[in-house]
Design brief:
Layout: H1 3-29, H2 42-58, H3 64-84, H4 93-119, H5 125-147, H6 149-187
Helix pairs in contact: 1-2, 1-3, 1-4, 1-5, 1-6, 3-4, 4-5, 4-6, 5-6
Length: 190
């Protein structure tokens, strides 16, 4: 797999690894991309597509999506590591896997932390909107990776930096909100 596609796929797998697997499997079977042979097997494409449909539904339900994300905290970085280790770079497989895992972990960290904050919102529409935006971002980035891998890889690297900023801001905001909440409880009349 070329470097741009590997970077875009690894980062995207941090949000929706099943969609990435399905796209790479179908793209590989149609000779649109040089993807791992395992992903091109019909049963893998079917399983990845089915799991993407499940994820598409689960991801729209508040709090259930956070549980799904918690389980996938381990799976998505592993998927990113595996995908990046199949890139065309002639570097150690361990180094490639660590880079791919880091890319996926930044995307997953931004997704999971943002969704945790969105779940605190009392209305249900924001969860659905954010979920659709995430799915659209992965679909657009993977489409770009199939057509223009270098551009997709560059966009994914920029998104990695954005993800790191989002994780930092959400972490700081959460710490501030929790401190305020503790302070209010301490100062509440008994």
């Amino acid at each position: 797999m070329d470097l741009g596609t590997a970077v875009a796929s690894s980062w995207s797998s941090g949000i929706s690894m099943y969609l990435v697997f399905a796209v790479l499997g179908i793209g590989g079977r149609l000779d649109w991309v040089d993807s791992p042979a395992f992903l091109q097997k019909p049963w893998v494409i079917a399983a990845a597509s089915a799991m993407f449909v499940v994820e598409l539904i689960v991801d729209k339900i508040s709090y259930v999506d956070s549980t799904w994300d918690a389980v996938h905290t381990f799976l998505r970085p592993l998927a990113g590591a595996w995908l990046f280790s199949h890139s065309d770079l002639s570097t150690s497989t361990v180094v490639l896997a660590l880079a791919g895992g880091a890319l996926a972990l930044t995307a997953h960290g931004a997704k999971a932390s943002t969704r945790l904050l969105v779940n605190l919102s009392p209305e249900p529409a924001s969860n659905v909107v954010v979920s659709l935006m995430e799915d659209g971002l992965v679909a657009a980035l993977m489409t770009l990776a199939l057509a223009y891998p270098v551009i997709a890889g560059t966009v994914a690297l920029v998104l990695t930096l954005v993800s790191l900023v989002v994780i930092y801001v959400v972490f700081r905001s959460t710490r501030y909100l929790l401190a305020r909440r503790r302070e209010r409880r301490r100062n509440a009349p008994q």
